Amino acid sequence: MTMPAAPEARFARMKDLPSTHLLGAGTAMCGGCGGLMAVKQVYDVLGPNTVFVNAAGCMTLLSTYPFTPFRGSWLYTAMASAPAGAQGVRDALDILRASGRMKADEDMQVVVLAGDGSSNGMGLSATSGAIDRALDFIYLCYDNEGYGNTGQQSSAATPHGAATPTETGGARGRKKDLFAIWAAHDPAYVATVSPSEPLDLARKIEKARSMKGPRLVIAFAPCPTGWTYDPERSVEIGHLAVKSGLWPLKEYEGGRTVHTLKPHPRVPVEEYLRLQGRYRHLFEPARDEAAIAEIQAGVDAYWAKAG
Amino acid sequence: MTRTLLTGNAAAAWGARLAAADYVPAFPITPQTEIIETISAWARSGDMPGRITMFESEHSMLTAAGAAAATGVRVFTATSSQGLLYGLEMLYACAGWRAPFVLVNVSRGLAAPITLEADHNDVLAARDSGALQIHCASCQEVVDSVLMAYRLAEHPAVRLPAIVNVDGFQLSFTREPVDLPDARAAADFVGPFAPGALKFRASTPISQAVAVLGGSAYSYFRYEMQRAAEAALAAHETVAEDFARRFGRRYAAAEAYRMDDAEYAFLMIGSFATKARDAVDRLRRQGRRIGLVRPRLVRPFPAAHIAALLWKTKAVAVVDQNLSLGAGGILAGEVASALYGASTRPLIASYVGGLGGRDIGADEFDAIAAELQDAAARGQAPKPRLLFTADELREVRKMQAVAAVERHELEAAP
After folding, report:
1. Which pTM was predicted?
2. Above 0.95 for ipTM, yes or no?
3. Which residue in A306, B122, B188, B300 has the most C-beta neighbors within 10 A?
4. Nearest to A76 among B22, B68, B211 (CB)
């Protein structure tokens, strides 16, 4: 007797990744946008039978009248309530199916698309409510660690020490642990992904796709304009975030958190930091050893605990 | 048809049930809560096949209302006061999505100070949102207006959310005899929800509520909304006629009471207009030629209807149960604007009263009527007045005195 293969087993090797791409080109996103890389990869796995329910942020400009890069559907809502919009769409689709007014093959996966500003801030109450109601939806947060669409002001996801237009000397906050906040609600699935790790991303999205209930994913979204680096380095920065241990790849399911990739040995965070203008003040005019060491110590402490 | 005693809140719930609303996103707030409790009980018992989902805020509730309507189901929701303001961003948004649904607002004064009883500052804050507004003066009108509101909101030339306003306490908690239409007759009148092309289906992907860049595209869609709201005026005539034919009750965009030979008029909206109606009867017995104009539609504003009713009068008292701070009564300005183009027009006297449920007394209506006559004789409108009596001021002074003594005792305590 053999166990049925897990749905994510579909993506065993890089060559198993979708070779046709669904998202149209020519969007208003910046060159090298990490969020867009994540959306592209996620969309390829989810397929066109989706309705994206969007919260105000960079990705709102994906669908700008009269153009859209999506083969499926889209609803822009507001900054605070995309999960409630997803609830309205999901409930309506369920009502239509239950009353025989819509066939099963007309149904769609409802996907919230929101940035870290909305997700960690004003949208958190609506997300908490949606998870509490066991809403059957996928939530994709592209985390570019600031209010990217308005010029990278500090959000609750801005890492400690990163310079932003509202905290030019470096952010004082400690980046909310959104993964833990979501996991504390015990939803069906929570995961972190990075578009620099497409196989890991595809497996997690495929797994989420096969499940029911609230499934929430945070995608690392390097932002050339906000973090100040050359757009061609987005993938490299994504790699370094994972290798340095700053962006742990993990998933939560059934009360357990599992790291899907444990970087070993970890590269020093300095290699990640020094590529980005937002950390330049840690290196110029003089090295701020204490600040760099503090960031390194935070990462070391995380992994010491994670085991 | 069943004749029964119903509160305004129960009448609103019956409106949703008779319209066969599919979906009710909800959040509790006084004095509206009875509506969603009633619907919730019906959903549980199976008396109403619709689904009710409780949200964590009115902002989320209204987002879901618009999203569900945009997906293609009939939506009913309800709120009051702070809740309407908390969700106001989404009311504007849903109107722009052209998502038709019916929202019952149970009017309640706005903070601060926080209070429970009715005035119209809450619903009039939604005045420019694109949502239609029907204001009710009786519990019968509540159930009838909800049914009519669905026809208006879902009219192909309109497709906008519609607010049915029910005054908190005066209507929400007052039991009145109501003729409930039969379920089948109501369903025939409202008809099935017809989403047209605006719906989410796998086979017909659509992007709704997308961004625009630049003023031209923005203006185009905003003008389309203006056209749609204006179209609701003509649609109201048809819908009201059809309603009268089926159910025998006729509703005008602006109701006229004893206006045929009136030289003077009160103009009011909502349940407090019944106090003006009572005053008209009393003043008529005294030989005054006075009547009442009660706009039921506030958006779209039935300016031509109002002008036609008032242009021959000498003076009209607009009694606003709202206050635009720094300007005055909101309807007074709207009525003035409706009449300004007429070759002959009455003097307009502006009164603000009934804030936070404050009563407007018979003696005050009498004083207003006397002021109208005096104004007409002098050919000059009186200054706007905020209704408040010496007795009320004495009561407030008494509370202030009590507060001062309390503070004094606290400070004197060891």
Report:
1. 0.97
2. yes
3. B122
4. B211
